[in-house]
Amino acid sequence: MTERLRGSLVLVTGASAGIGAATARAFASSGARLLLAARRLERIESLAADLRDAHGTEVHCRGLDVRDRPDVEAWVGELDAAGLVPDILVNNAGLSRGLDPIHQGRVEDWDEMIDTNVKGLLYVSRAVLPHMVSRGSGHVIHVGSIAGDTVYPGGNVYNATKFAVKALTEGMNLDMAGTPIRISSVDPGLVETEFSEVRFHGDTERARAVYQGYTPLSADDVAEVIRYVAAAPPHVNLFRTIVYPTDQRNPYVLHRRDPGS
Ligand code: NDP
Ligand code: 8X3
């Protein structure tokens, strides 16, 4: 099925790490062309070099902060002028900051999560979608989360941003009625990436503990699902795909093996 992706142009935000980088690798191995964006330009340039070597992939890199609306609009304008409007947009850039109860939360953390996970996703979508609509083809895939279905203690604002992503998946999909444009989300549970290191502001010990005693999803597992969603025939929309590690049944039921076993 992924043969359908050969030659298609895929824009991945947050491609410098974790799920975004794995998504770039997955699409490259299916013969897609790539537009990679993240703030850490050197990381995506290094990934691009690897993908060109391994697959001969056409890759364009752009240092981008999805919170910077004028720059998002400028870049998409440049892409349009260069004939590089993506066929597939993967809105992956996102983060969590902190796990404090609401009365102890840091307002700066809240702003960063809302600005990135909700407003950044909107800025990129708003810039790209008109081109997809006028061309009459396109697929937007959000990376949501199980955190958008069920809240957990300390998740408060992160949960709210992913509930917003879920609402936007549904709302944008309705808005695209009558067009061939598909809107989807892939909603993972626990995935071992830099996510927890970012959440805990660089506390690597605390971050590592999140993934101990069970088998979490890998970034490659999630990328595989994103590629599958994108590769479905044009008349099929895998609208919301929830992906858990087998050891996790919901945010509260996580089977950790005894440390001694
Ligand atoms: P990582 O921290 O490994 O990667 C996050 C990516 O987002 C990085 O490439 C980072 O790039 C990018 N990013 C963050 N802020 C911005 C910004 N302002 N502008 C552009 N890019 C940005 O985490 P994951 O791969 O795990 O996270 C990817 C997505 O998956 C997020 O939306 C997250 O909420 C979601 N998710 C993660 C889960 C998990 O358990 N790991 C589970 C469910 C969903 P850079 O810093 O270079 O800009
Ligand atoms: C990331 C997964 O469980 O930390 O969205 O919310 S979780």
What does this structure look like?
The longest helix has 29 residues, at 107-135. Helix 1 (18-29) packs parallel to helix 2, helix 1 (18-29) crosses helix 8 (219-231) and helix 4 packs parallel to helix 5 (156-175). This protein has 8 helices and 9 strands. The chain has helices at 18-29, 41-55, 69-81, 107-135, 156-175, 195-199, 204-210, 219-231; strands at 9-13, 33-38, 59-63, 88-91, 139-143, 182-188, 191-192, 217-218, 240-243. It has one domain: Rossmann fold, CATH 3.40.50.720. The strands form 2 sheets. Strands 3-2-1-4-5-6-9 form a 7-stranded parallel β-sheet, with helices on both faces. Strands 7-8 form a two-stranded parallel sheet. The chain has 261 residues and is of the alpha/beta class. 2-hydroxyethylsulfonic acid binds at residues 145-147, 155, 189-190, 251.
Topology summary:
Blueprint: E1 9-13, H1 18-29, E2 33-38, H2 41-55, E3 59-63, H3 69-81, E4 88-91, H4 107-135, E5 139-143, H5 156-175, E6 182-188, E7 191-192, H6 195-199, H7 204-210, E8 217-218, H8 219-231, E9 240-243
Helix pairs in contact: 1-2, 1-8, 3-4, 4-5
The protein binds NADPH dihydro-nicotinamide-adenine-dinucleotide phosphate (NDP) and 2-hydroxyethylsulfonic acid.
What are the salient characteristics of this protein?
single chain; 261 residues; alpha/beta; Rossmann fold; seven-stranded parallel beta sheet; two-stranded parallel ribbon; 8 helices; 15% strand; globular; binds NADPH dihydro-nicotinamide-adenine-dinucleotide phosphate
